[in-house]
Amino acid sequence: MQDGDKEGQSYSGGRTGDALKAFVADTLEVKCQVADPKGCSEKEVKFMDNMKAKSAEDRQKEITRLGGMKSGSMKPELKQWLVQRQNILKQMD
């Protein structure tokens, strides 16, 4: 479960320890903190700077847009970047 989501999400990935560990790292860990960006990548910091310049309404629209994309099929690295952006935006609100 993430950020108060009481229903969670279905998991259809692999059942090996490595597959589960990768899923947790990609979807549940929050490594980048807006309040202290020292653990953030350059890409995350750039995204934060862009989103800080936008209104709260625009950030909420982006959260909604990314949420709609999350259930789609995409490469693991793209899915991870999507989750990273969602985490950053949720911290800003």
Number of strands: 0
Determine the number of helices (DSSP H or I, runs of at least 4 residues): 4
Fraction of residues in helix: 55-70%
Unreliable spans are none
Please provide the ordered H/E string of secondary-structure elements: HHHH
List keywords for this structure.
93 residues; mainly alpha; 4 helices; globular
Give an overview of the whole structure.
- By secondary structure, the protein is mainly alpha-helical.
- It has a domain of 60 residues.
- 58% of the residues lie in helices and 0% in strands.
- The protein has four helices and no strands.
- Helix 3 runs antiparallel to helix 4.
Give a concise summary.
With 93 residues, this protein is mainly alpha-helical. Helices cover 58% and strands 0% of the residues.
List the helices and strands and how they pair.
Blueprint: H1 17-27, H2 42-52, H3 56-70, H4 76-92
